Amino acid sequence: MRYLDSFEIVKLVEELCIEANIRLPEDVADGLVKAKEHEQSLYGQAVLDDLLQNVEIARKEKMPLCQDCGMTVVFVDWGQEVLLVGKSLQESVDEGVRRAYLGSYLRRSVVSDPLYDRKNTGDNTPAVVHLRFVEGSEVKITVVPKGMGSENASALAMLSPGEGEEGVIDFVKDVVARKGQNACPPLVVGVGIGGNFESAPILAKRALLRPIGCRSADERYARLEEKMLRHVNELGLGPGGYGGKVTVLDVLVEFMPTHIAGLPVAVNISCNATRHAGGRLKGREL
Ligand code: SF4
Question: Lowest CB count within 10 Å: 137, 141, 162, 234, which one?
Fold first, then answer.
């Protein structure tokens, strides 16, 4: 058995929140560069120029990539040989988020009550934590600051199995066509297929963590990703929604087993600021 002091989680989450907000992952930045080479619309090219300049300024000046520094989503893969000592996981993650958002002047965007008071919690907590236990003695943490413009464009459908591949493609296309232009394209589209009502959206969000251009290991789903990428780009929304060839940088699919009577499909839209940062902690000898 090994242990991890909760303060190590606080420190790592703080670092990752700052890194994710100021440094666009290389694969997304490269995706924007390739989009610029491919895009023919003049407005689209101008948007991509601005976005690439924004990426550089954020990196150099250590400024947030976007004014919406997101609701903080944290994926934790916890090695089951590790014991957490000190505060709870949620408290530790929230403390890391609090320190990052207050200390680095990141915009705090979380309200305590969704319907009535809508009072800002003042420190961007609580974070949304997705925990799963894995083998080993390591803890892997990935922080995803997720803006609400792109969350608002996301959707879930409980398709019937007979709708098959065509139903999935139509749904993904429809979601992007209806709200994609409000989500700051070019987009990255995460698609979760299978599971049930609550697991498909988490799969879709996990899909956004895969590097752009990294195809599914399953050839059938890899082909589906390529097909959906083509279909969605044919919509012609273009960078910034001003028209053009590049509406999305990629479509990434994660899937899992489901019930005989169902075909859940979730589409989690992400924007040109598809941000995430990850790190690992090793459990210490008890
Ligand atoms: S959708 Fe993305 S780029 Fe647009 S405001 Fe929200 S976080 Fe920023």
Answer: 162
Q: 151-208: per-residue pLDDT in tens?
A: 999 999 999 999 999 999 999 999 999 999 999 999 999 999 999 999 999 999 999 9
Both 180 and 213 in a single domain? yes
Cβ 20 vs Cβ 275: under 8 Å: yes
- Report yes or no on 98 lying in a domain: yes
Same domain, 83 and 177: no
CATH number, domain containing residue 87: 3.30.360
The answer for 19, left when phi > 0, alpha when psi is -120 to 50, beta otherwise, is: alpha
Tell me, yes or no, whether 27 lies in a domain: no
How do residues 208-267 score in pLDDT, each as one tens digit?
999 999 999 999 999 999 999 999 999 999 999 999 999 999 999 999 999 999 999 999
* Distance from Cα 149 to the centre of ligand 1, integer Å: 6
Q: Which residues line ligand 1 (CB under 6 A)?
A: 66, 68, 147, 149-150, 183-184, 271-273
**Rounded to an integer, what distance in angstroms lies between the CA atom of residue 254 and that of residue 128?**
20
Q: Both tokens of residue 48?
A: 């991509």
Q: Are residues 124 and 219 in the same domain?
A: no
Q: CA 47 to CA 33: how far, in whole Å? A: 12
Quick one: 104 and 209 in the same domain? Answer: no
Mark whether 210 and 225 lie in a shared domain.
Answer: yes
Residue 112 structure tokens: 């305590």
Number of domains in the chain: 2
State which residues form the domain around 101: 2-22+65-146+277-285
Query: Which of 21, 51, 66 has most ligand 1 atoms within 8 Å of CB, for mutation?
Result: 66
Q: What separation in Å is there between the alpha carbon of 196 and the centre of ligand 1?
A: 28
CB 52 within 8 A of CB 263: no
